Amino acid sequence: MENKPSDKKKALMERYAHRFGAMRVRTLSHLGLDIFETERDGCWSRDIDGRKILDALSLQGVFNLGRRHPIIVEVMRKGMERLDLGNNFLMSEEQLTLADKLAATTPGNINCAFFSSTGSEAVDLAIKIARGYSGRSGIISANECYHGITGFALSTNSNPDYIEPFGPLMPGFSHVPFGDIDALRNEISQDTAAVIFEPMIAEAGLLIPPADYFFKVRELCDEHDTLLIIDEVVTGLGRTGKFWGIEHSSGVVPDIMITAKGLTAGMYPMAATMFTEEVADFFLTYPYSHYSSTGGSDLGCLIASAMIDIVNQPEFLQNINKKGQQLAAGYEQLMINHPAILESYRQVGMHTVLRLADPAGGFRMNRYLADEGVFALLATNNTAAIRIQPPFIISEKEIDQIIDALDAALKKM
Ligand SMILES: Cc1ncc(COP(=O)(O)O)c(C=O)c1O
Questions:
Q1: 4 CA distance to ligand 1 centroid (A)?
Q2: Fewest 10 Å CB contacts: which of 110, 140, 141, 341?
Q3: DSSP state of 275
C-alpha cells in the first residue's frame, strides 16, 4: 500500500528540506521513510498523517525496550523531581550505582567506567585510553566496521561514503577483514595500541566470526601487549540473547568495552566506556585528561540503572532468545516462499539480518516494508542486507506482522 503525503505533510517536508537539506528528505522518501513521528508507544509510532508504523529496527538498539517503556518513564519522571545533569566535575551516588551495576555485568575485571553522551564519544575515549596507556599509536579495526562519527571513531572507518570528504583522517589507523585471524596476525605489531572490533557486525550484513576468533584475537593482543577494545554499542544490552555480545566467546576478557544507544532505553543520550582496573591506571597520571560537561548525567545514570534491572534478568534474556526463534521460524518459511530472492538470513538472538540475492535489493526492500507499515533499515555497508532488530518487548502477534510484511515485500521484489 503506497502512501501519498497529505498537503500538510508535504508543506512540512518542504520546510524540512530547506532547514536540513533536500537530499535528506529525498533519501527518506526514496526509502519510504518520510515519516514525521508524532505519538510513540511500545513497538509503534504514528506518522503525522495518522499512519501507524511498526518498529522492526529499534534504531539499532536505542529502543530495545520499545518507545517510552512505562517503568523507565516513571523512573525518569521521579528522577526529574530531584535531579538534573549533575555536576560531572564532582561525584554522585547515581554515577556510582550505575558503575557498580555495569561492573557486575562485564567479564573479568572490567570494573571502571567513564560516562559520556554518545557512542562515538565513548569510542573516542577508548582509543585515547589505549594510546595514552600504551604510549603507542597503532589502532586496528575491521574493514567493514562502523564505530561512530567523531575524530578517533571515524578514523577506524574505511567506507569512502563516511570518510572521503573529511580526509586526511588521524594517522596510525589500519584495517583488516573481520574474522580473518591471519590478516590480523600480519597487521598487529609492537606499535599497535589497540584492536577494536564489534563482536559481530550488523552494518555489513551481520558478519559472525569463526567460533574461536576472539580467543585468537585475545592471544594475539596478549603476545603484542596490545589492548582489546570491544564495541558493544549495538550488540550489547541483550540484543544477541546474552547481556554482552562478547559473552558468546565465553572466557574472552577485553580491556575496554563500550556501550551506548539502549543504555538509557531511548529516553536520554548516554554512553559508557568501561575498562579494567589496570588500564584505569592511566587516569592516575592524567586524571582530568578527558572530561565532558554534560556526560555522566545523574538523571541518565538513574535511567540506565533501571534499564539494566529490567534486561539483565535470566528470564528476560531467555525471552529474547525465544522471540529470536519465532523470527527464525518466520525466516525459514520466507526462504521457502522466496528462494530466488531471499538468499539467506543471519541471526544471533534478536540480532537478525536478511540477505537478498540482489546486491542493491536493500533499498527496494526498505521501501516495500515501509509501504507495509514496517520500519526496518538496510545495512549501510552491505546494500543486499536488511536489518531486522525489533524491540525486545515485541509481542508474538507483532512478530507475525513483521513476517507477513516481509512476505509481502519479498513478493513485490
Ligand atoms: C557499533 C557502533 N559503535 C558506535 C556507534 C556510535 O554511536 P553514536 O551514534 O551514539 O555516536 C554506533 C552508531 O551507530 C555503532 O553502531
A1: 33
A2: 341
A3: E
Tell which residue, 390, 241, 259, 408, has the closest CA to residue 318: 241
Question: What is the grid cell recorded at 362?
Answer: 536493500
pTM: 0.97
Integer Rg of the chain from CA: 21
Give the span between the Cα atoms of 343 and 358, in whole angstroms: 9
Can you say whether the dihedral through the CA atoms of 311, 314, 317, 322 is positive or negative?
negative
Asked if residues 296 and 139 have their Cβ atoms less than 8 Å apart, the reply is no
273-327 per-position pLDDT tens digit: 999 999 998 888 888 889 888 888 999 999 999 999 999 999 999 999 999 999 9
Between the CA of 148 and the centroid of ligand 1 the distance, in Å, is: 5
| In a shared domain, residues 330 and 299 | no
Q: Hey, whose CA ends up nearest to atom 13 of ligand 1?
A: 148
CA of 147 to the centre of ligand 1 (A): 5
pLDDT tops 70 at residue 248: yes
User: Do 207 and 120 share a structural domain?
Assistant: yes
What is the largest distance, in Å, between two alpha-carbon atoms of the chain? Answer: 64
Residue 72 lies in a domain: no
pLDDT of residue 147: 97
Within this chain, do residues 319 and 216 fall inside the same structural domain, yes or no?
Answer: no
CB within 8 Å of 55: residues ≥ 6 apart: 43, 44, 45, 63, 66, 67, 375, 390, 391
Q: Are 371 and 3 in contact (CB under 8 A)?
A: yes
In terms of residue numbers, what domain contains 29? 7-61+314-412
2 is a domain residue? no
CA 369 to chain centre: 21
Which H or E element spans position 301? helix 298-311
Please work out, in degrees rounded to the nearest 5, the angle formed at the alpha carbon of residue 235 by the alpha carbons of 111 and 64: 100
